[in-house]
Amino acid sequence: MTEAIPYGTSETRAGDGGPVHVLHFVFLLPHPVVRVWAAVATPEGLPQWLARADLLEPRLGGAVTLRWLNAEEGAEGAVVSGRVTAWDREAVAEYTVGTYGRIRFHMEPAPANSLASVLRFTNEFAGPDGRRLDNLARWHRHFEDLSDALDGRPADRSARTPERLGRLRAEYAART
């Protein structure tokens, strides 16, 4: 991986059905916005690091179906459907899907370098606190895969270990 992914942060608030968690990640990628956009908002880019887009209608209100690459085939939540809830070409892609909730990518050129991008990520979902820690660790690992994919090294699923995810989860638990 070229760049280390900074730790994400989270906040929790009361919701009608229990706690609602909002995860935030902000980091610099040494790639122009157009490349980052292609990775997070196109059916060709998403499978290189996150999910296969079985369906992605690139417009506000469009349908989206994502097949998570890190989930076992047939497992609950392996395939989720929803809507594109924000869409501003090469700036914002937001999907609201199943129990994964709202997943928002906001991209902008880095302040002093038009060949680099700042990615602001938000994930809002309901669930117990353990799920918050799991999702912080999973998104962190996904963003390591995104960085590698942008550098020309698509995610190697065989190199993933439960130990790495467990370490990340423990690091997030210690930080909060």
UniProtKB/TrEMBL annotation:
Q: Which SUPFAM superfamilies match?
A: Bet v1-like
> In what residue span(s) does the Activator of Hsp90 ATPase homologue 1/2-like C-terminal domain sit?
31-148
Q: Which family does it belong to?
A: Belongs to the AHA1 family.
Name of the protein: Activator of Hsp90 ATPase homologue 1/2-like C-terminal domain-containing protein
User: Lineage in the entry?
Assistant: Bacteria, Bacillati, Actinomycetota, Actinomycetes, Kitasatosporales
Q: Which InterPro entries match?
A: ASHA1/2-like_C (IPR013538), START-like_dom_sf (IPR023393)
Annotated source species: Streptomyces spongiicola
The source's superkingdom equals Bacteria
Q: Name the Pfam families on file.
A: AHSA1 (PF08327)
